[in-house]
Specification:
alpha/beta; Rossmann fold; 2 domains; six-stranded parallel β-sheet; 11 helices
């Protein structure tokens, strides 16, 4: 089985060492490198192309938010999990930047490992406290036009969107709805265009906000 390659980006050596020890607990995960600043994360991602980056927000020079924007623009298939000390005012910006997860650094080891596997499968990974704040912030900032997008979805697209919000991968959605993965991808492209989002995390938040699923 191919291992998940993870890059650690944090400016505190003790944090990096702790993360390394946690990741080494899972034989399905391989640490490809570690770095202490955002520009270094960008440079190493360009060279190593990891599957997942564990990204600190507050780093000297280029911070985690800006690094995430650059990486997601250049290499959109690389998954980014933000790891931070506390809920931050940049949470919504992190989602807009394309991060697949946002966890607090007091996360339990097994939850961190699960989150890494989840984002690789296309599922969002957010701390429950962060999820609540994100929904509140998203509700305040979402435009009326965006909310009307739900009325343009077909019945099948609504089913697909609800399953995205429940964390299902494309393969899982295909199995549940008895359709091909290619058809699922086509539905997702249409959904994103209609509700004006750019990734699965934003789509999941949209679905929850519009009461398509319960949290």
């Amino acid at each position: 089985m191919e291992k998940i390659r993870v890059l650690i980006a944090d400016d505190h050596p003790l944090i990096r060492e702790g993360l390394r020890r946690v990741l080494e607990m899972d034989p399905r995960i391989e640490i490809c490198d570690e770095v202490g600043d955002g520009q270094g994360a960008i440079n190493l991602t360009r060279t190593l192309h990891p599957d997942v980056i564990l990204m600190d927000l507050k780093m000297p020079g280029t911070g985690g938010l800006e690094a995430s924007r650059v990486i997601r623009k250049e290499m959109p298939d690389v998954k980014i999990i933000i790891l931070t000390v506390a809920e931050d005012e940049e949470m919504l910006e992190v989602i807009k930047a394309g991060a697949s997860g946002y966890l607090l650094k007091d996360v339990q080891p097994d939850e961190l490992l699960k989150s890494i596997h989840d984002v690789v499968e296309g599922k969002p990974a957010f701390h429950p406290v962060v999820t609540g704040k994100l929904l509140g912030e998203y509700s305040r900032l979402s435009s009326r036009d965006k909310d009307q997008g739900i009325n343009n979805l077909t019945a099948r697209e609504k089913e697909v969107l609800a399953l995205i919000a429940r964390g299902e991968s494309n393969r899982g959605i295909a199995r549940r709805l008895f359709i091909s993965e290619k058809t699922v991808k086509n539905h997702i492209t249409s959904i994103f265009r209609k509700i004006k989002v750019t990734d699965r995390t934003q789509a999941a938040i949209y679905a929850i906000k519009n009461h398509m699923v319960e949290i």
